[in-house]
Amino acid sequence: MRIARIGGVGEERPVVIEGDEAIYVDTLISDWSRQSLESGSLERVKAANLSTLPRTSIHGHRYGAPIFRPTKVICVGLNYLGHIAETGADTPKEPVIFMKAPDSIVGPNDDIVIPPGSTATDYEVELAIVIGKRALYLENPDQSPDCILGYTISQDVSERHWQIERSGQWVKGKSFPTFNPIGPSIVTGDSIDPNNLRLWCEVDGVMKQDSRTDDLLFGINHIVWYISQFMELFPGDIINTGTPFGVGLGFKPPVYLHSGQVVRTGIEGIGEIISRVIDYK
């Protein structure tokens, strides 16, 4: 199953995607959110007769972020072997975890806004895990799939000056408004195998990142289990699982985003998202 939210900013409605059509399910649930997922919204929709519900073509509609106001965005750094090599960093012995402001989340095709004065705004394609059930102190990674709602595309935009040169934690360079386009839909865990998916990122038609999730240092199940050892995960929480080689920072000299460019981000089995880069005004 694919779930999503479509509509103008602030007017998104929950839908199920079937082919080129979106089925409105807001007569069954209030939204795709932490609160509705905790109350069994996914199970309610799966059990419903969707053929009786109104539907529309997906073409011409704006996609919103597939989860309404997620309470956490958790990120895993240095988690692709190729990316570790291009940065020259030591291979982590445990997952590198940091947070990103949930308000950085925007719709999958919304604009990426470069902060005032920034000359080091970078792109990062990532597979995002969306949590479906509360998870705390899982006994082993094999329990993780039961807690995962599904997977979606995340563009983990990063401002490298604030991330690297301004001391402290990486959250500084990750949390600007619009710095996490996500979507277009969530593919539920029973519909996709996340362990060997192609993921890529193009800038103005030039392929910058092109890898597969089998290059992950720490796999999907391990990540969820590991985070649950020190943080409670709730339905709707998003985990950005890391980015592969090819980021702008990795070029010599670095090659960063600027206004007027178009970023296309894709993951096999999920789809593509396209963001226009603009300056802050």
Automatic annotation (TrEMBL):
Q: Which residues form the Fumarylacetoacetase-like C-terminal domain?
A: 72-277
Is Metal-binding included in the keywords of this UniProt record?
yes
Biological process terms from the Gene Ontology for this record are: carboxylic acid metabolic process
The record, for InterPro entries, names: FAH, Fumarylacetoacetase-like_C, Fumarylacetoacetase_C_sf
The protein's GO terms of the molecular function aspect are: isomerase activity; metal ion binding
Family label = Belongs to the FAH family.
Protein name as annotated: Unannotated protein
- Species of origin reads freshwater metagenome
